[in-house]
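[worker-b] picked up task from shared queue
[worker-b] task type: protein-ligand structure
[worker-b] ligand name resolved to MP5; SMILES cross-checked against name lookup, match
[worker-b] sequence length check passed
[worker-b] input payload:
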Amino acid sequence: MSYVKALTIAGSDSGGGAGIQADLKTFQELDVYGTSAITALTAQNTLGVQGVYPASPEALKAQISSVMSDIGADAVKTGMLFDEERIKIVADFASKEDFPPLIVDPVMIATSGDQLLEEKAEKALIKKLFPHAALITPNIPEAEALTGKKAGTLQTRKEIMRDLISFGAEAVLLKGGHEEGTDWITDILYDGAAFHYYHVPKLDTPHTHGTGCTYSAAITAYMAKGKALHDAVYSSKAFIHLALSEARSAGEGAGPVYHAAHRGENRASVHVEVEQE
Ligand SMILES: Nc1ncnc2c1ncn2[C@@H]1O[C@H](COP(=O)(O)OP(=O)(O)OP(=O)(O)O)[C@@H](O)[C@H]1O
Ligand SMILES: Cc1ncc(COP(=O)(O)O)c(N)n1
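[worker-b] inference finished, payload out:
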């Protein structure tokens, strides 16, 4: 018998709430064997990012080679990629025919406001990596930066998602966590054929560190286990909502989500609607 396996290619968060650490915790919680390739070390805590120390291109290549040539992966995710050179390295691996399904979380700016991807690398993300992705998972500011459009209304959100798909990814999940002035939060999944809406009540918590990383890691884990994209997103939405609803403080700033929340009795309820294109 062998493990179900997932690889994360991302930055390390010394504070343990986001990046590689959030991804590996999530994989473990969902009973998936996690491996990692570190793109950059960050000196980070709940208050912000105090330093970024990129891994050398050789070190990044070697980590991915070591994992893929022996252990392999049933699904792969990317998080903080830092710059164009590192994006190209990942894209070279992802372009191989037998590369597993790839989930790209286009991490650009941390909750704390710190820059995790050089601005000039956004084009490389679009051109080199998106064409290999089974799913990309931008939040609203990232989707706006990538398309140059404002996501003010539902119509403009749909337009943005169509634009993002046209860059070559099979599907896009637009996360609504940054929505202001609403009691409900809606994430929208678009696969070129239909829009799937996932509605949840907005949680009033300052402890949102690592939500995006944990969510995309959960999707990766469920896809590694063989779930279809829509099921993987639905299960992951329930996982992140519960983890966020039980998030606690760990330091002076935005605390991390509680990855183990699903072990308890509580369950999240997610309301789903589907609209054909
Ligand atoms: N206050 C909230 N209440 C309910 N769900 C939330 C809240 N904030 C974020 N989420 C959910 O958390 C997930 C991550 O969304 P978000 O838009 O915050 O992504 P992100 O900005 O990439 O995350 P991060 O904060 O890690 O950078 C989404 O499913 C989103 O709907
Ligand atoms: C290494 C790393 N990767 C990703 C994030 C984004 O997570 P968040 O927006 O929750 O800070 C982060 N802060 N650090």
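[worker-b] attaching auto-annotations
[worker-b] The chain has a mean pLDDT of 96.
[worker-b] releasing lock
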